[in-house]
Inverse folding.
């Protein structure tokens, strides 16, 4: 009898609060980057690694995920869904998948883009041995992640977002391999707060030692902050771009950079310029003389005539009025009461928001969903969802 | 109104020489014959589902039939390990109740011939009298067919010849598949009911719908009325009036898996949530907002549109309500008198100029018998015909002068949802196109309408984001005695459609009215136990409608309203916000009503995708 195939569990139940307003109506894994949701890159990497049975742990706005992925046939895999109703930690999320798992499995985050090769390596490791496997990568900002301490090849401790000095730049890459026995380890891990996988792993390390580590230096795209989106967008356009060969209707003299991805049937008015590192989604309309560069335009948005949209993210069904300007002069952006300096982000526009004609948005402008602004306003800060911004 | 499938594959020796290519072209058919037929029946279940049966033929086992009333999954396949071919059937009762005896296949007196049939044999009484020596075991019209075949086989011992002779004797509409003991062929005939052949290298299929066998082959041939065909493992022969004919082989490009309900408990909820993407597909590449024109790839003879006097829309059920919505758009945007008729009631009456009339048939499946009948009556009267449908290659597309596809993707839930939205959006584009060509519609107005159409997917998504509020409302009112839906202008068809959705899937009493009619009768039914759901948006004369809602509220009825963003009626018990998209706002409001119907029915544990007594594609008149 052959061993059961290695399955995959992808965690996609979380909300992604740091990315509001883009996560007000969709979970973070469904934010489109280079015209496809982040989660699709992870599903593809898992499929390419030869794992064809995927369990998606869903919760927050799960209909978006279910509608997009269905039963997985479009990706040549079988997808099962399990629900994590309350977000009680990654360990709790993995426990929800237990009924769908009958052998060794790989766990991934639904919002971190990785190479198929590392998924395959973890799958091989966990198929051949019963010890948990953790992946380790290097970063310049280890304090934002789980810092890994190792003895030889074995992981002895993972410390989440340490506040004191750190001895290493090696962090938990968030791809794990487990045998079904690990469910029991998670279940018997007691924590005061969220039941995380790292807490369960630390417990395992204390009691048994014996946690494999695999070093990973390939693609590892993490979207922690809004400005990461444009960087990841550019990165994925570069690696995955079929360029703008998909059919589109243009009139007049439209200029489209080679490193732009344009969805099928997008319609451009005359003299539109699409610069590099730009993704334009389905059913978007870009009116005459508009300029869009280094930007992500979600489906159903309208960019008005003569508007300039640079270093910006425009969410679904938003309307940028004629001659509005979004431009990312380096400046300061405040997230969760922390000021980030020298950020280049010309504006983030939430779903269904209407920016009036001639408005000006600069770095720091993060406009919530369902906002309406008057013509000619200037915005350089956060605007709450549903607000109306008036002139003067 | 049934689903049929037939499958024949090569035996070991026959297959061996082409085995290498077979794996690639037939999807690697490793399952047993019975399993493949059973799976095909599951794919066809949406066509009807009160009885199911199969007939399997093997070289040494002969002919084995298993059939019963109930769902497809309930059928236990007979153990016939050497079966090389067989036929299967899902039945939706027309003649005789759903019993084991009335389930197909039906056999002749000795059990040598088995037949499955979709359609109606209108002269079955006369034929039965003629066959008085034969022993009948069911109350179906179908059973005359195997007995007729038995008669013909006595004179000429060939199944093909027998079916050809029988085909001459049948009146009505039918698609039939016949198998016989000691015969390695399936013989099929089509008249009036859909039948499509699928061709693999080592296996051949026949079915009412390509979804039955799409996972095995994409090479298909649509049969024409009057065709009789034989299926053998690697080949198909088609005959018309006894002469061999060649029918085109077409490639199916769409994905069968789009028809699987993955991810949701019900196809209906999945399809409700697919509406933004379905609508994007409907309008993709067809709107030129800047120029105020549409590109629908539709053409009419020179001068036809300029001289057009009337557009007559013919349709049934939900498509009829899409037609009611569209008729108002044709009058307003295309400047043409437009009428809508229930297809089964339609006659091309006198007093009309046939050459100045366009008859528009709206049918999701393209196979709706009532609508096809109306198209044929219009054609006979000399009118120009046009179809709005979701189904490439369907019968209606071959009978009309022009077609616009709604491109909504496969819809499996019996209760139509995304196809209604895509039908109205498509008809709106047709209205703009005709209006512009006739010079009846100004550029500025056209641009504004097209801008609203482009905003439709985003607006529908906003409603879907609001689903928890609808679920709460459904929970609060699910136990009401009855539900009344009201609206004016474009709100009327949406009220009617909202009521239809609820009654179809929750079995609750639900009625739609023009709001102004409430006080002319239905108000007598209003009590505190009968909530009123109202369309209070642009295009639906919201303020006047609200007056009627207030009349109902005065009698104690709770009131729920879909209200344009930015306006508010403080007196409503529940208010749902509809984004600003002009004349398609009522269409967006309809998504709230779909969700309301779904959640009421789901809370009651109804069989949402397969409501009792209903079928998806109604191919009987």
């Amino acid at each position: 009898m052959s061993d059961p195939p290695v399955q995959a569990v992808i965690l996609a139940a979380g909300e992604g609060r740091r990315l509001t307003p883009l996560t007000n109506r969709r979970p973070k894994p469904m934010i489109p980057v280079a015209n496809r949701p982040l989660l699709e890159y992870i599903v593809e990497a898992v499929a390419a690694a030869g794992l064809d049975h995927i369990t998606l742990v869903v919760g927050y706005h799960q209909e978006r995920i279910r509608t997009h992925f269905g039963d997985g046939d479009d990706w040549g895999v079988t997808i099962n869904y399990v629900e994590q109703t309350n977000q009680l930690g990654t360990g709790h999320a993995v426990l929800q998948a237990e009924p769908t798992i009958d052998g060794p499995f790989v766990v991934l985050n639904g919002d971190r883009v990785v190479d198929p090769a590392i998924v395959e390596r973890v799958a091989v490791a966990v198929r051949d041995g019963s010890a948990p496997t953790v992946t380790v990568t290097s970063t310049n900002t280890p304090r934002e992640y789980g810092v890994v301490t190792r003895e030889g090849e074995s992981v002895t401790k993972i410390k989440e977002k340490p506040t004191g000095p750190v001895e290493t730049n090696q962090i938990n890459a968030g791809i794990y391999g487990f045998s079904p026995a690990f469910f029991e380890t998670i279940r018997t891990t007691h924590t005061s707060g969220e039941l995380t996988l790292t807490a369960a792993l630390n417990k395992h390390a204390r009691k048994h030692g014996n946690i494999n580590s695999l070093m990973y230096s390939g693609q590892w795209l993490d979207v922690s902050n809004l400005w990461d989106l444009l960087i990841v967008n550019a990165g994925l356009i570069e690696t995955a771009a079929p360029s703008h060969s998909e059919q589109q209707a243009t009139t007049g003299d439209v200029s489209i950079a080679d490193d732009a991805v344009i969805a099928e049937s997008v319609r451009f008015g005359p003299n539109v310029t699409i610069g590099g590192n730009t993704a334009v989604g389905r059913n978007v309309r870009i009116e005459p003389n508009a300029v869009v560069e280094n930007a992500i335009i979600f489906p159903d948005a309208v960019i008005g005539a003569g508007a300039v949209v640079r270093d910006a993210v425009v969410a679904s069904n938003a309307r940028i009025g004629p001659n509005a300007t979004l431009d990312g002069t380096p400046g300061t952006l405040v997230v969760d009461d922390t000021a980030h300096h020298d950020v280049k982000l010309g504006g983030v526009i939430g779903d269904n928001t209407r920016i009036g004609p001639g408005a000006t948005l600069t770095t720091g402008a993060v406009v919530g969903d369902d906002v309406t602004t008057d013509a000619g306003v200037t915005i350089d800060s956060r605007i709450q969802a549903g607000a109306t911004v008036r002139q003067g | 109104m049934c689903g049929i499938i037939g499958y024949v594959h090569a035996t070991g020796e026959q297959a061996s020489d082409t085995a290498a290519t077979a794996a690639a072209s037939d999807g690697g058919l490793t399952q047993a014959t019975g399993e493949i037929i059973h799976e095909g029946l599951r794919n066809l279940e949406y066509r009807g589902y009160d009885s199911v049966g199969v007939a399997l033929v093997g070289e040494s086992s002969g002919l084995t039939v298993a059939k019963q009333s109930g769902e497809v999954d309930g059928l236990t396949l007979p153990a016939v390990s050497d079966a090389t071919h067989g036929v299967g059937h899902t039945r939706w009762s027309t003649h005789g109740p759903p019993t084991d005896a009335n389930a197909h296949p039906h056999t002749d007196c000795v059990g040598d011939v088995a037949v499955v049939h979709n359609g109606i044999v209108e002269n079955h009484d006369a034929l039965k009298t003629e066959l008085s020596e034969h022993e009948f075991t069911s109350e179906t019209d179908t059973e005359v067919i195997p007995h007729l075949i038995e008669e013909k086989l006595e004179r000429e011992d060939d199944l093909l010849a027998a079916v050809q002779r029988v085909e001459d004797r049948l009146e009505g509409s039918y698609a039939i598949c016949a198998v016989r003991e000691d015969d390695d062929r399936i013989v099929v005939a089509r008249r009036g009911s859909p039948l499509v052949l699928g061709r693999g290298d080592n296996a051949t299929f026949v079915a009412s719908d390509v979804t039955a066998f799409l996972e095995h082959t994409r090479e298909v041939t649509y049969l024409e009325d009057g065709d009789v065909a034989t299926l053998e493992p690697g080949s198909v022969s088609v005959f018309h009036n006894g002469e061999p004919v060649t029918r085109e082989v077409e490639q199916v490009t769409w994905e069968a898996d789009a028809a699987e309900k993955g991810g949701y408990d019900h196809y209906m909820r999945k399809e409700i949530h697919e509406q933004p993407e379905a609508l994007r597909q409907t309008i993709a590449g067809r709107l030129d907002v800047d120029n105020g024109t549409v590109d629908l790839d539709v053409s009419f003879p020179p001068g036809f549109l300029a001289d057009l006097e009337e557009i007559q829309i013919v349709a049934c059920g939900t498509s009829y309500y899409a037609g009611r919505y569209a008729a108002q758009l044709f009058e307003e945007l295309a400047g043409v008198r437009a009428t809508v008729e229930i297809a089964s009631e339609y006659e091309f009456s006198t007093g009309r100029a046939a050459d100045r009339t366009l008859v528009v048939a709206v049918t999701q499946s393209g196979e709706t018998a009532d609508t096809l009948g109306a198209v044929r009556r219009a054609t006979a009267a000399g009118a120009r015909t046009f179809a709005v449908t979701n189904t490439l290659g369907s019968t209606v597309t071959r009978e009309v002068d022009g077609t616009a596809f709604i491109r909504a993707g496969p819809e499996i839930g019996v209760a139509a949802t995304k196809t209604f939205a895509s039908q109205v959006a498509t008809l709106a584009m047709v209205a703009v196109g005709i209006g512009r060509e006739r010079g009846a519609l100004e550029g500025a107005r056209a641009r504004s309408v097209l801008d609203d159409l482009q905003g439709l997917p985003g607006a529908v998504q906003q409603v879907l984001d609001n689903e928890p509020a609808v679920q709460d409302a459904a929970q609060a009112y699910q136990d009401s005695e009855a539900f009344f839906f009201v609206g004016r202008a474009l709100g009327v068809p949406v009220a009617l459609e909202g009521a239809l959705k609820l009654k179809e899937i929750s079995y609750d009493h639900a009625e739609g009215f023009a709001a102004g009619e409430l006080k002319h009768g239905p108000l007598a039914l209003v009590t505190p136990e009968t909530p009123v759901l109202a369309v209070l948006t642009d295009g639906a004369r919201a303020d006047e409608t609200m007056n009627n809602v207030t009349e109902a509220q005065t009698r104690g009825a709770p009131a729920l309203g879909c209200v344009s963003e930015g306006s508010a009626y403080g007196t409503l018990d529940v208010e749902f916000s509809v984004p600003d998209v002009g004349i398609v706002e009522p269409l967006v409001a309809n998504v709230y009503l779909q969700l309301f119907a779904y959640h009421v029915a789901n809370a009651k544990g109804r069989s949402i995708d397969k409501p009792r007594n209903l079928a998806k594609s109604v191919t009987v008149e």
Q: What stands out?
A: DSSP finds 17 helices and 27 strands in chain B.
